[in-house]
Amino acid sequence: xxxxxxxxxxxxxxxxxxxxxxxxxxxxxxxxxxxxxxxxxxxxxxxxxxxxxxxxxxxxxxxxxxxxxxxxxxxxxxxxxxxxxxxxxxxxxxxxxxxxxxxxxxxxxxxxxxxxxxxxxxxxxxxxxxxxxxxxxxxxxxxxxxxxxxxxxxxxxxxxxxxxxxxxxxxxxxxxxxxxxxxxxxxxxxxxxxxxxxxxxxxxxxxxxxxxxxxxxxxxxxxxxxxxxxxxxxxxxxxxxxxxxxxxxxxxxxxxxxxxxxxxxxxxxxxxxxxxxxxxxxxxxx
Length: 286
Fold this sequence. Notes:
Blueprint: H1 2-21, H2 28-77, H3 84-104, H4 108-130, H5 136-174, H6 178-198, H7 203-233, H8 237-253, H9 258-285
Helix pairs in contact: 1-2, 2-4, 2-6, 3-4, 3-5, 4-5, 5-6, 5-7, 6-7, 7-8, 8-9
């Protein structure tokens, strides 16, 4: 923050001196405006970075919490998880919880909690299978139970990623500022990335990530198009053209379907040509 304030002061006095030398009657007005815009951009960027860092911190803390719980469950349950009856009861309990969460359409975090419970079950049964105290029939039963739990585990991780990302994407759509929309959409992307670390080749995750990237691209392009339209309305045609070019930059850079990109680029280029024609007409009239 000290560096940002220092740069803003340097910018203010440099513009003031330059405009005063050029004969501007009130050089402090544009100099102060430029410094204020710089501070606004810097503070907005800091807020976005802090929110993304906080989101990553929460995800890491959640993973660490469940890793610690996994270690404690291993220590406390290793001795009592060798009997077939206990494993069968644990499997039935997981299946019951899974059915309840699915039927009540509960919060996304409930699915994430069940994913970790399935992980605990698999860890404990793996340890039981490494022991020599189980019969062949018990080993077959345990492996069959593991297959069922792996299916439940995948189901709940994908459901959590889908529901959490949808909720955050909907929240992003309701946000007012462009930076808030993008930051919230990136939080939705973080949820999908967390699931992709476990199920890397899942097509549902890739489709959802592509949809969010397209949403982020549309937000950025719409932001610059709106600024360009405002500039054109005020008669600042050159500034409007530059902002339309910024919209073209994000349209070509971000992940957008080819037909959507082509249609958007055609519309923007048409607006740019109209603005250039207005500039030429103004020059001819003057």
